[in-house]
Amino acid sequence: NKYDFGLVGLGVMGRNFILNVADNGFTAYGNDLDKEKVEALKQEGGDTAKVDASTDAKTFVAALKTPRKIMLLVPAGKIVDNVIESLLPLLDKGDIIIDGGNSFFTDTDRREAYLKEKGINFFGAGVSGGAKGARKGPSIMPGGSQDAYQHVKPIFEAVSAKYNNEPCVAYLGPKSAGNYVKMVHNGIEYGLMQLTSEIYDLLKKAGNLTNEELHHTYAKWNSGRLQSFLVEITSEIFAKKDTETDGDLVDKILDKAKQKGTGKWTSQNAMDLGIPVPTIDIAVSMREISALKAERTKADELYDRPNPEEVMKKALIEKAENALYFAFIMAYAQGMHQLADASKEYGYNLNLGEIAKIWRAGCIIRAGLLADITEAFQANPELQNLLLAPSFVEKVKGSVKATRELVAYGATNGIPLPGLSNSLTYFDAYTSERLPLNLIQAQRDFFGSHTYERVDKDGIFHTEWEA
Ligand code: 6PG
């Protein structure tokens, strides 16, 4: 009896994903070079007729039903190519390889083209939701051949998270569409994380909120319009005690944030496309600034900062809720805008409503807001920017005033709120009919004869600026 689904890479994500497949009535076979990981899966899987595993690639491939559906959950980069090369001689035409890691989208395009020549279907499928998501239901973002997807679809739909019984997976588009969408998902993730952390800083410094109060504040927000996975876990983080001291764990954690690159790729590619994503950009920059701990420590001694003027807790918390809501909208708006443009540039033919829909559960950026975003894009699939959606105008108008007040407060009191202020600046610039960039055009023409256009007639103009 052959198995329905194969998975290479039995780390936490892989093991959890394969057990999830088995829970949903499919038989699955795992492969990893590490004997211990293979044994651990067999132990946990229990019945080898349902879940089995081997360290040997040949045994693994031979155990699978054709067309074989083989998912790779291995670290992005060279390892993916190595695994593909080791499987290739063992595969038959029509077999399907699915890369479930955070691979860079151009790597996926290269692999897809290479494998197509050999008659193998290759999918880049972003999987979001961490270890728990993989086990209980992730959001899955697959891209590749639509025909081949039909073979994978029943399994992915069964294992994915559900939102109102709808699976959080959909065929997103050809080639690297799936990895691209996952990359932008992660860019938004970086933005939301930066925003939740700077609001924490503000509440602590301006309102003197204790960790317990922060725990309750984020928990309360999570039961309102800010409902989201990241706000929920933030609330839980504030309640966690340190096991080594009698303090709270959050205070013992070094303030240097690491990154594996997906947020940075989002920013870099947005620059390539010419799409502004400043909330995401600053989130990447803040991780970089955070990493300069030794320099920051020296600089801290050289410069004074104002002592934050204390603010009434209740009013502060209310404003912070508004500002976080406002800035969350800006982060999603920027990410969706990037997806809309990338869709044209790379021929993905993305359905933004469908993407927002499969982000409503399972993934790290899942949030109540995504139901509204889904509706906005379903109402107008050609929507260029969420800020242009009629259903978002009141939401934004109602939350911008508090954002302005807090950004001003942060600037006066020396509390860095870069995600909030970039979000606000993005909003103010995007919603301005006239920007001062006419002056930049004049300067360019002045020193480099770069020409300019006029507001009152068509054509390209140049002026001899110096008499
Ligand atoms: C997800 C996450 C995940 C990502 C981590 C770490 O959707 O489950 O995006 O794929 O790898 O969040 O990312 P950084 O190390 O770059 O913060």
UniProtKB/TrEMBL annotation:
It is an enzyme of class 1 (oxidoreductase). Substrate binds at residues 102, 128-130, 185-186, 190, 260, 287, 444, 450. Coiled coil: none annotated. The keyword Nucleus does not apply. Keywords: Gluconate utilization, NADP, Oxidoreductase, Pentose shunt. It comes from the Bacteria. SUPFAM superfamilies: 6-phosphogluconate dehydrogenase C-terminal domain-like, NAD(P)-binding Rossmann-fold domains. Gene3D superfamilies: 6-Phosphogluconate Dehydrogenase, domain 3, N-(1-d-carboxylethyl)-l-norvaline Dehydrogenase, domain 2, NAD(P)-binding Rossmann-like Domain. One of its GO terms (molecular function) is NADP binding. GO terms for biological process: D-gluconate metabolic process; pentose-phosphate shunt. It catalyses: 6-phospho-D-gluconate + NADP(+) = D-ribulose 5-phosphate + CO2 + NADPH. Transmembrane segments: none annotated. Its EC number is 1.1.1.44. Catalyzes the oxidative decarboxylation of 6-phosphogluconate to ribulose 5-phosphate and CO(2), with concomitant reduction of NADP to NADPH. PANTHER family: 6-PHOSPHOGLUCONATE DEHYDROGENASE. Belongs to the 6-phosphogluconate dehydrogenase family. This is 6-phosphogluconate dehydrogenase, decarboxylating. It comes from Croceivirga radicis.
